[in-house]
Amino acid sequence: MPPNHTVPSQFLARFEYICRLTTRTRPTRCFYQRTAQPNLLRRGLHSQAGPKHKSNVHWATLASRSAVLVGLAAGSLQLFHETPVDRNQQKTVDTKVKTFRLAEVRQHDGSSQNPWVIRGTSVYDITDWVAAHPGGDVILTAAGGSIEPFWDIFTIHKRPDVYEILEEYKIGTVDEADLEDGRVPQGAIVDPFQNDPARDPQLITHTACPRNAETPQSALKDFITPNELFYVRNHFWVPDVKGEDHEITIEMVDGTERKYTVKELKERFPQHKITTTLQCAGNRRRSMTDAAGATKGLQWKVGAISTAEWEGVRLVDVLADAGLSPKDLPEDAQHVQFSAMEAYGASIPIRKAIDPWGDVLLAFSMNGAELPRDHGYPVRVVVPGTVAARSVKWLSQITISPDESPTQWQQRDYKSFCPSDVKNPPWERARSIQEMPVTSAITHVETPRGPEGERQTISAEGYAYSGGGARDHPVDGGQTWHEAELLDNQAQAKGSRAWCWKRWRYQGPTPAECSGSPEGKTRLVVKATDEAYNTQPQTHESIFNARGNLATAWDQAEVPT
Amino acid sequence: MPPNHTVPSQFLARFEYICRLTTRTRPTRCFYQRTAQPNLLRRGLHSQAGPKHKSNVHWATLASRSAVLVGLAAGSLQLFHETPVDRNQQKTVDTKVKTFRLAEVRQHDGSSQNPWVIRGTSVYDITDWVAAHPGGDVILTAAGGSIEPFWDIFTIHKRPDVYEILEEYKIGTVDEADLEDGRVPQGAIVDPFQNDPARDPQLITHTACPRNAETPQSALKDFITPNELFYVRNHFWVPDVKGEDHEITIEMVDGTERKYTVKELKERFPQHKITTTLQCAGNRRRSMTDAAGATKGLQWKVGAISTAEWEGVRLVDVLADAGLSPKDLPEDAQHVQFSAMEAYGASIPIRKAIDPWGDVLLAFSMNGAELPRDHGYPVRVVVPGTVAARSVKWLSQITISPDESPTQWQQRDYKSFCPSDVKNPPWERARSIQEMPVTSAITHVETPRGPEGERQTISAEGYAYSGGGARDHPVDGGQTWHEAELLDNQAQAKGSRAWCWKRWRYQGPTPAECSGSPEGKTRLVVKATDEAYNTQPQTHESIFNARGNLATAWDQAEVPT
């Protein structure tokens, strides 16, 4: 395809083209749209934040970068391959000469017209790369300083092909006057977590940066979890946001956009309250590891689950205002993607988003208080019944799309597999976790001593939860099953779906083999059954997956003797 | 409460009263409404067909029957108790004198103003009872002949309190000239099944009257089950219906009614096609019985499940036309009750009925052919994803109600319980089965012999099904799990929910302990995981219930050696 100063007519005949950058294993879909001028294309990118228009590209520029036209099937979208040849050619320019002081680099921060980053002691001008960056604008968070602390979080970057892309943009090195032992000093590197909020020390911390901490046993006794003890699952730092002026963008499948400030959302749409449990896909992962072998991920015990009353506006109302009519859905409107300010993103099926009983909220408050920063201030999504990973915090964009969110949290991390798929799980074929399966847990068990010091009764409590709706009869016992008492039956308004856990309580006699026999170990086992009569698997072995997701086997606890 | 010729003012102050007939353990709710005349009440009955107005009752008549006013709590509904004293008093009239020829009894059939029935050799005029009959008008089917063949089906009648009620209406005995050996001869008794259709002999019959038969293994291999091999689950005889003139009544919570003929339904509403699997709650009951002990009910193997393409009109469209707006649902509109012509009835939650993706149909055709009589001709309900017991055949009435259907099939038969609740299950507390839990079954397994007569490979097939939506990876194996190949991935239109089973196929090497060892028995085990990652329970023991419902444990088959 020779360079050409006018966009070829067959290009103009179609509206949209898809570009697959061949040098990356996770393809990013660029697209080009016609403009009013025949020699200009508008370049956009399907990032995790959905399609974004970035810049106008002269056809000649595109052609000179060796864009290879690979097909012109009538009526279909057009595939480009940008060959790496391009970049190798561009790399030859004088990149080894210039040096920059750190003070100068810092001026090229995220607000600059020409953002720069440092890797090692090299300096890169990423201005031209930002639009093509698969992760979107988040790359600007690193601008003005070192990119390495961010790559410690976004570890997907630590590979040769990514290093190679970055090398294209090298403009020089850090001045030796600013190096210590040949390195950029620690203090000169921005800590992205420096503005994270203070947390309650009662939370059981798994990782500090990003903050991941579970609800302590004492708070699992309550139906509503206090905000400060609600479990925290952060993938990154906590964004520092401007509150009511914060804007979210809603983009339709046809690329049209509508922006709303938080203030506007609060004022223009009716407020709704939904009480729902949120649960991490990894809750109880530790018990799967203990029972069935090593799993990758935070080793949550039973506290990666909490319940709150959320207040906000219904997503379905806002989407309708933005132009998405549930009655007349475009064929392509299959998924609703949510993007967070820090970088996180996930999606839910359109059906859940606009289900009149789906109760998906854009929430501003939690248990009557302003949304805490750790839980998404100023606005987050709350998707009842669905894995909490889809309840995106610090919401910045909503994109209606034919596809699921392209992020790793949708495409990889929150999936489960056949127990035999340990080494090479079928990432693409496996479904992303959405509605949560039925589970239950024992949070407390005791055998109080009687007047003679004997143990006569077992007293236990815990919770049961299912994403599919109200659930009932968790039953516990050993060889025989007993029905536990369910608390929280009045928690839901009549007619509305039950999105919450139900705490249970069991009191019964100590089994004969337990009392009087100091060696006799008795185990209390709990399993729950949900509204569709689904019940929990008996063992973790039968649902083992190397990610340790959905560790929903019968829970067990040793009865003290 | 003394007899009174004017309805007491406190009665007129309320609109509706509830009457509980104290002599019956299954309460029937009669209600009384005011009329324009101060001394008349309008009597109605909440039957399985919903509230029906039956007759005007003079207050004095009601009072003279010793209706006992038991409370007048302000604002609440009013409870009456009709004491059995009444009936004992009425029983004294001359009932032993008159004799009737069978020819005369036959004239008092269901179309007569004064329907009679025979029990033993006694004759009863049930004219006054029909309105109060808890089962509704179906009692008229027996009129003009013996009621006993019907009580053999509706066995709930075989108890002293029911006999006692019938005795109130005795008017005489059958003339001895018509008796043989002191009994009414067999030929004189109507066989309600005499008009049942002919069936394909390949169906595996469990009971002939009513007809209950499962799909043979040969037909379980196909995605679509041929109409003549679709499993049949009838609770009664097959009604003989007049086709397009057949009328269904839709009753709103406020008692208003709208009637539609089948012809009108077909002409006035858009036609839709839905392919869905229907499954009996008792499918695989036999395996629960074998594994965990005796269960009550038809001992289905794996064939009480079939799949068809149904065509009809959407329930939600028809309800909207009848006045039920999904946007403005009355608070009391909680359930949609369906009544069949023969007597059967069941209900679904309103949410399922009007869910835009619920796909509930009033179906007229099955796999492109007119609905066969065994499957509900001329119109049946099809409730995808829900236990087939709610897909009521031979539909006659739809009732919007605050309550579930009062029939035994909603209140008792289709429920499951804690394994320990064998003797006295908590009928009222247990939920009626609606959405189906995930299940799977092995329908065929073989180990074909190689050239040396050795068995080298296992070849197996079966199905997986879940009511909650698309399902994936049934995995099978022994100590290790292997993922089976799922067929039928293209079966659903894009965007629509997956209401169908997925057939699976597995081919793998024969395990070492199987080949070469004539004694070594190897079992193939299958379990499926659904869209919400719910999976099947490992054993039937853990989900055992005396009804044998939802026998969804891992399926097993011995591998031939």
TrEMBL record, chains A, B:
EC numbers, comma separated: 1.7.1.3, 1.8.3.1
Catalysed reactions, as listed in the record: nitrite + NADP(+) + H2O = nitrate + NADPH + H(+)
Location relative to the cell: Mitochondrion intermembrane space
Primary localisation category: mitochondrion
Domain annotation Cytochrome b5 heme-binding: ranges: 97-175
GO molecular function terms noted in the UniProt entry: heme binding; molybdenum ion binding; molybdopterin cofactor binding; nitrate reductase (NADPH) activity; sulfite oxidase activity
Keywords: Heme, Iron, Metal-binding, Mitochondrion, Molybdenum, Oxidoreductase
Leading EC class: oxidoreductase
Name of the protein in its database record: Nitrate reductase [NADPH]
Organism whose genome encodes this protein: Penicillium diatomitis
Source lineage: Eukaryota, Fungi, Dikarya, Ascomycota, Pezizomycotina
